[in-house]
TrEMBL record:
This is Lipoprotein. The keyword Coiled coil applies. Residues 42-171 form a coiled coil. Residues 1-21 form the signal peptide. Keywords: Coiled coil, Signal. It comes from the Bacteria.
C-alpha cells in the first residue's frame, strides 16, 4: 500500500506539472510542493522567467519610445518659444519703425503746412505791394520806377519761394 501512495504522489506531481502553464508557475504565487515540482521539472519556472524578461523588454522599449516622444515634444516646445521670441522682437522693431515713420509723417505735414502758410503770406505781401504800387502810381507817377523795382524784386523773391514750395510739394506728398 505504501507503493500505491508513492505512485499516487508521483502521478499527482506529474499531472500537476503537465497542467502548469507559465502563468501558473510564478515563483511568487506557487504555494504547494507538487505544483512547484511540476513547474521545476517541466520548465514552467523557466517559461515564466522568459515571459517576465520579454515583458520587461517590452516595457523598456515602450519607455524608450515614450522618452523619445517626450524629448521631441520638449524640442518642439523650445522651438515654439524661440519662434515666439523672434516674432516678438520683430514685432517690437516693426512697431518702433512704424512710430518713427508716423513721427516723420507728422513732421512733414507740419512742415508742409508751414510752407503753405509762408507761401500764402508772400502772396498776400505781393498783393499788398501791388496795391501800394497802384496807389502810388496814381498819386505820384515819378516815384513809381523805384517802387516798381522794389516790387519786381519782391515778385522774383516770391516766385523763387513759390517754386521752392512747389518743388517741395512735388516730392513725396503726405496728407
Amino acid at each position: 500500500m505504501a507503493g500505491w501512495r508513492v505512485w499516487s504522489a508521483l502521478l499527482a506531481l506529474t499531472l500537476a506539472g503537465c497542467a502548469s502553464s507559465a502563468e501558473e508557475c510564478d515563483p511568487n504565487k506557487v504555494n504547494n510542493l507538487p505544483t512547484a515540482m511540476g513547474c521545476s521539472v517541466f520548465g514552467g519556472f523557466k517559461a515564466n522567467l522568459a515571459q517576465a524578461r520579454a515583458d520587461l523588454e517590452q516595457l523598456r522599449a515602450q519607455q524608450i519610445a515614450e522618452q523619445q516622444r517626450a524629448n521631441a515634444a520638449v524640442q518642439t516646445s523650445q522651438q515654439l518659444v524661440t519662434n515666439r521670441d523672434q516674432w516678438q522682437r520683430r514685432s517690437a522693431q516693426a512697431r518702433r519703425d512704424l512710430d518713427r515713420l508716423q513721427l516723420e509723417i507728422s513732421g512733414l505735414q507740419a512742415r508742409n503746412e508751414t510752407e503753405r502758410a509762408r507761401q500764402q503770406a508772400m502772396q498776400e505781401a505781393l498783393a499788398a505791394a501791388n496795391a501800394r504800387l497802384q496807389e502810388i502810381s496814381r498819386s505820384n507817377p515819378s516815384g513809381t520806377a523805384e517802387l516798381r523795382r522794389e516790387i519786381e524784386a519782391l515778385e522774383r523773391d516770391v516766385e523763387a519761394r513759390r517754386r521752392a514750395v512747389e518743388a517741395y510739394n512735388q516730392g513725396p506728398r503726405v496728407e
